[in-house]
Structure prediction request, 1367 residues.
Amino acid sequence: MKTGSRMMKTVQCFVMIVCLCGCMNSRELNELGIVMGVGIDKGDESGTVRITAQVVKAGEIASTGKNSGGIGGKAYVNFTDTGNTVFSAVRDITTQSSRKLYFPHNQVLILGRSAAEDGVTKYLDFFMRDPETRLNVYILVADGSAEDALATDPQLEKIPASAISKLVEGEAKSTSQAMAVELKDFKDSLMVKTNAPVAPIVEISDDGEKKTAKINGTAVFKGDKMVGALDKTEGRGLLWVLGKVEGGIIETTSSQGNPVSLEIVRAKGKFSPELVDGKVKITITISEEGNIGEEAGTENLTALPEVAFLEKQKGEVIKNEVTAAIKKAQELHADIFGFGESIHHKYPEEWKAMKDQWDELFSEIEVEVKVEAKLRLSGRISAPAVPK
Amino acid sequence: MIVFLIAAFAVILIVEVPAMIKKRQWRELAVYSVLMAIAIAVSVMYVLDLNVPNPVKNSQYTVKGLAEYLFGLSYD
Amino acid sequence: MINYLKKVIRFRKRKKNSGKERPEARQETDAAFFGELENDLGLLRGAIAESSDLIIRTFIFGRQIKAAIIYIDGLTDKELISETILKPLMYRTDGNPLPEKVDLEYVRAELLFTGSIDTKKSLKDVVSHILSGDTALLMDGAAEALVISLRGWKTRGIQEPQTESVVRGPREGFSETLRINTSLLRRKIKNPDLKFETVTIGERTHTDVCIAYIDNLAKPELIEEIKRRLNKIEIDGILESGYIEQYIEDAPYSIFSTVSNSEKPDKVAAKMLEGRAAILVDGTPFVLTVPMVFVESFQSEEDYYSRPFFASAIRLLRFIAFLISILAPALYVALSTFHQELIPTPLLLSMAAAHEGVPFPALIEALVMLLFFEILKEAGVRLPRPIGQAVSIVGALVIGEAAVSAGLIGAPMVIVVAVTAVSSFTIPAQTDSGTIMRFVLLLLAGLMGGFGISIGLFAILIHMASLRSFGIPYLMPLVPFDRSGFKDTFIRAPLRSMTKRPRGMATDEIRRRNASSPSRQKEEPPKVSSSEDSG
Amino acid sequence: MRLEKGVITNTQLMFLILSFMEFMVMSVNFVYSICGADAWIAVLAAYAVTMLVAVGYAAIAKSYPGKNLVEINDVVFGPYLGKLFSALYLWFFFEYMIHIAYYFNSFWLTYIMTETPRAVFVILLIFVCAAAVRSGIEVIARCSMVFAIMVPIMAVFAAALLLKDMKLFHFLPILDLPPKDFIQSVHIILTIQFCDIVVLLMILPYAEDNNKIRKPLLIAVSLGAALLLFTVLMSTAVLGARMNNSTSVTFAITREIDVAKVLTRLDVLIAITLLITVFVKVAVFYYATVLGLAQIFKLRSYKPLIVPVGILAIAISANLYPSDMEQVYCARYIWPFNASLFEFILPAITLIAIGVRSLTGSKKERNG
Prediction:
């Protein structure tokens, strides 16, 4: 009996405590405004920031099913507000939105061009500090304003933000012409003084009727300010160096001058610094494997001499892309590759002296590019289907 | 809030004190009462948002001061 | 108020007094026989209440010797009575003259044909035998009675039990008669050490309760403890083994049962072979076994009949199902109201879409659905089978279809509750505790999210770690860790490799099984070590 | 008279110590911003020192088998000075307990449920721990066995999922920091992560085989250090420079987990780990405080003290520091000195006193 009464008392106490402090933080699903994308623009007045938050309308998402009465209704709403800081702008949005903004499922973070050129640290701090936000959102720079980028009309998806995030992923996987940069990678580079962060650029094309978004180029930051952009070729050059090329097409010509498309299957890239007489020399080694994807001519590409020729051509293309990227980076004085850090790792003592004048050193750094490009498969046919 | 707190303490006392009296644990009861008095005082102060004197922090600063004074140890 | 208290006190006093009086009253009936039939019969009539099923048949045999048989109609085999008592006495005495002096001993030795005969002097004994179904023979001139065992009543045959059906394994189950049950056990374990000890419990029902164990396998302390607890029971009636269970369990106020029960002789025999003791109660097919550990709920006797790989997979599946059955609604509520960031985005979007327009908070939704499920279950169990099916169809329709399409309940919640319901049926032994835990965890989840669930699980774990069943820690093979028992926990190791009994259960820890596997001859010699966690 | 009748086996003791130490996986943040990528070297150095200290603790416990710290103090220093020593120790245990409770509370408030009133998590934590303490050391030991295994499993699980994000160059360059910073971080790891095992002197006598307690102690310390090293290496390899300004590194790395967008958002792993480790830690400190108090006042049972001590702990720890920033400052610059007093200096005095006593006493051979 004794233990029993004690049990009962314990249970009573427990129930009391639970009732005392329960029900504090709960939010029902239909009270949430799930944010899928955030755009950051510079406000009209100086020192202000304009935040666009794309919120999902959950009811519309499911309307593909039987009761598709509300067809034509957009599955999202864009809220825009201006404030002195990001957080104050976000909180101001609450005055327009009936639901509390909920950030953990944010997919993309789009910086307007003006904001990017203004310096991004002050805009991004909220997204790194707040417990609700996540570091694995894609960060992009809009060609124009971020607000417009979030107002584009996706063709296959229901929500522009998730469409853009899928564009970024697809870009990184299948063409490798711009890097998919998550906020954490961005933060990584921001925190190293000599590194220059990059972010893909999202371009809004307007054909009068429909506005569509596409990825085009890579924005280059110096410190936290955007200073320039890489085009598609240079963008892939950057990815070659970092070893992040996952797929794509290399266009070149056969020995007879016909266009040939070669598919990239896998690629590796790494670089190592070397100090020769106090001068920095970087050796970049890239190895690439690919298949024949398409040819426009009639010659048999599977002939061994032709294969060797194509491999050489391919290596040349890769080398050109890399050189273009390096040249652009040196023009912008932005160490987007992380050469500086690699010297820091390898020569910590010498680095202390070089650290402060890295900007100048970087622009006259000597780079050697070694490319080893291979062709592996010819596809389902060997020679093209032409009569012999 | 304060009402809940007092109710909670009342329940605890009603549960625990008679058991000790029944077992004639006078010594235990004495220690228990002293500790409980302190606990009630501190928690009432906490609930009323009064400035709770924080013995833990004070003792830590004292120890650190001692270490600095005696051995000149410090990391700042 | 004061009046009420007075009444309570008075009632308690009376209860105490009556408790004291009753033994005395019984003692009065314990008189000796006089040796004259008329008086003796009068004595018996005084002891047994006038009842229509009490048969007293007087007759005369030999040279005018008056005699009477007394039995209860319905508990005895009437054919046998006339064949083996009345016929020999009345026929034989006709032709062959009896000797001059006929005493009870002569009747017993020379005249009766039956096997089990006993001589009883005290009236009390005789009465209790009569009530148990024996036949008493009283004779003029003898101050004793012959108690002849000719029990025979209608019983349910040995049938396949409804609660524990198997695909592979023996189909027989215990029945309501104690003797049949002991015989079933004896047939499984043909061992001279198998021992049955009977005690009678219940001041009014005089129910036979039988402790069964294997003498040099079960720990003597365990048997002593069982007897001690059984003897402490003071109750007027035992109608089912559940009564015993609630009186002898270690933690009567715990939600976990520390005594396990089974309807299957093979299961009980297996447990006895591990060193446990079984408690059989007359009148019920449910046999108790002690001590019980938590993982026992997840072991099915069929695990040992099928091959180890599949059996192990099923074991794991049961553990997972148990977790689902107690956690699924709580997790769903916690995720959807507190930790939405942990749900993958596409899933969150479809959950949000499903919850759009649902009027209730997720917690209320889950509570209502689970409550409705419990009602449905209860309705299905108690009703006759055809109607029960109708109930479940109606219930399923209402829950599954109507509530969702009316927009009262979100569709994911229906899925969660259905999964929970199905999972909860996989562990029959923990259904009660599981249901309670499910609701408590659900409430905690609704109030405090994942933190509440974790705190609830912690509290449950602490509680389980502090439980013991007859000296064995409730979480035994896990904590304290026991290698030989662990082989039979999350997986079911091959029988050949389970050479030892679980630690602390039996006096002799080596399984006899290992002798049968020649490949294991070089196994370490039998080592009898007492474990620190026993007692 | 023994207040605790439970007995735990030496294996259970080992698991208890291990799970007791596992909290360091969570609390290792304070050193990262000081020594960055070299934290793992600091861990190794601290481990080496800890082994010495642990041998010392074991020597104290073994010199009076069956007696815990309070009783040893009574014997060694006499009733009055001994009581003072014991009171100091108990104060330290209590202090430690509410610090952990505060850390736990602020973690939940920062990362998981931001809008909940401060006291809620502490109240429930202390409540559960009180239930464990009330059930005695045996139950704590049994629970800890389950927990001790779960934390390494989670660490390995997280590591497996993070394998692709690990970059070895994050460790470079090695030892790129001033010696003073290195010493400071070793000191912090020593006092916060390792040497709180001084509280085990209250529990060691309840082990089954009192003469062999050194082995489980040292094994557990080594396993704990291995786990800590594993975590530190993993988080350094994953986070690199970002580690320097995360307020909880362990939490930050689980947020990195992203396997094909399916196995992601595993923050719950960390929440569970935190709860498990904090539970064992607080339960042991709680138990030591209450038991010691009861022994100082020569009570017949420690159970009546559970509730008042628990309420005190809740009330003080709910707002121990005005802000988390102050807690971090405290952990870096003040706590190491505070803890050194109780973890090194007082035990050293005790050990010396035991040595002197055994030299002057009749039993000269006794191990000091």
Remarks:
- Chain D touches chain A at residues 110-117, 119-120, 123-124, 127, 131, 169, 172-173, 176, 240-242, 244-245, 255-256, 258, 264-265 (CB under 8 Å).
- The first strand of chain D starts at residue 258 and ends at 259.
